[in-house]
From TrEMBL:
UniProt KW keywords: ATP-binding, DNA-binding, Helicase, Hydrolase, Nucleotide-binding
GO molecular function, one term: helicase activity
Top-rank lineage group of the source organism: Bacteria
Native species: Virgibacillus dokdonensis
UniProt-listed Gene3D superfamilies: P-loop containing nucleotide triphosphate hydrolases
A Pfam family annotated for this UniProt entry: ResIII
Protein name per UniProt: Helicase-related protein
Signal sequence annotation: none
Segments forming domain Helicase C-terminal: 227-377
Residue span, Helicase ATP-binding domain: 42-194
Length: 377
């Protein structure tokens, strides 16, 4: 804050411990994952300035990082894994702790119990990087294109300042923005591309569904008729439901009507099985955890859950998909919530709209293109 003093370290640089065989993860990588993993590891060991990892939703980006993180720890380097979304920090922490069980790992974000940020591996929201200067040998930005990182130049500045001059910046994204795509086109940014999911199945391709009088129905607190028909005709009613709406007020308005429909269809038995969640919800963390543990069957949400969270078996619906908040990147990411497990790789994704937008068309085109590059017709 403006009234608080800011301190910087001017003593000897910190010396971090070297760890042999720090990674305790015993899983196996696919061929595409292995190629990306080796590229990440080599970029760190050769102290390359930057690397972009363009990998589709559900490709296993986190697991691809393990070899690089282990190589960095073997060299006595310090690592920061940063992401714009607090929910992603919470999701990453137990996964990284399990993969590097002998290393102290701290998570920093607004409201976190941990305040020090003194460990060799830090997982943080990108806002927390304002606290660091030339502190890390490796900085990994997960979800590079997510809001607010791509829209706030101060966060990019903080990220670059947190990295040592000789350090390596690793960018992870499933939906690079125009700026990054232009750099790739002109060979100004080294990159590795992973077009397939870890389980070897294609990305679910969204369907578009026209809804007449969409906004009138939403303002009344009722879900569109086309959405109701889809709810009743879903192929697999055992899947959990992730329903996206563009604003907080709409999520709170529509949730009771959706409950009534699902209760009448005997898909849910009680009001405790459905709720809404948004960024300012004080029970946000608890609700997401309940949905992950299948104590909630239906979650009505804003774009806070568009990325970085994994649920094994869900159908995804976006109501008012033509709203400006749903840009191409958001639509691709939301579609990527479906079909993330090998046991159920075919989740349904539907864009409910009252008029196609360029963002919707481009998102579907990109998903189909990724499937083609992955070897699916």
């Amino acid at each position: 804050m403006e009234t608080e003093p800011l301190y910087r370290w001017n003593g000897e640089p910190a010396c971090w411990q070297k760890h042999e065989w720090a990674c305790t993860w015993e899983g196996q990588l696919t061929g595409a994952q292995s190629k990306a993993s080796e590229t990440i590891r080599d970029a760190i060991l050769q102290q390359e300035s930057s690397l972009l990892v363009w990998a589709v939703c559900g490709s296993g980006k986190t697991e691809m990082l393990f070899a690089g993180i282990e190589a960095a720890l073997r060299q006595g380097m310090r690592i920061c894994l940063a992401t714009p979304r607090v929910d992603v920090v919470r999701e990453l922490l137990p996964r990284i702790q399990e993969a590097f069980s002998t290393i102290l790992i701290q998570a920093l974000y607004g409201g976190s119990k941990e305040k020090r940020g003194t460990s060799q591996i830090i997982i943080a929201s990108t806002h927390q990087l304002l606290r660091f200067e030339h502190a890390f040998d490796v900085v990994i930005i997960d979800e590079l294109d997510a809001f607010p990182y791509h829209a706030d130049t101060s966060l990019a500045f903080a990220t670059e300042r947190a990295l040592k001059p000789s350090g390596t910046m690793i960018y992870l994204t499933a939906t690079p923005r125009r700026k990054e795509r232009r750099k790739l086109q002109w060979n100004q940014l080294k990159h590795v591309f992973v077009p397939t999911r870890y389980h070897g199945y294609p990305l679910p391709v969204p369907q578009m569904c026209m809804c007449f009088s969409l906004h009138k129905q939403l303002q009344k607190g009722t879900a569109p008729r086309a959405f109701i028909r889809w709810l009743c005709q879903r192929e697999n009613k055992q899947r959990q439901l992730l329903i996206f709406l563009p604003t907080i007020s709409l999520t709170e308005k529509v949730v009771s009507h959706i409950y009534t429909i699902l209760f009448n269809q005997k898909i849910i038995k009680d009001a405790s099985e459905i709720t809404s969640v948004h960024a300012s919800d004080p029970e946000r963390e608890r609700k997401i955890s309940q949905f992950r543990n299948k104590r909630l069957l239906v979650l009505v949400t804003t774009t806070i859950l568009e990325r970085g969270v994994t649920f094994p078996s869900v159908d995804v619906a976006i109501i008012d998909a033509g709203h400006s908040v749903f840009d191409e990147a958001a639509l691709v990411q939301i579609a990527g919530r479906a079909g993330r497990s090998a046991e159920d790789p075919d989740g349904e994704v539907v864009f409910f709209h009252d008029g196609k937008t360029n963002a919707m068309v481009r998102a579907i085109r990109l998903i189909k293109r990724m499937n083609q590059l992955g070897g699916f017709t």
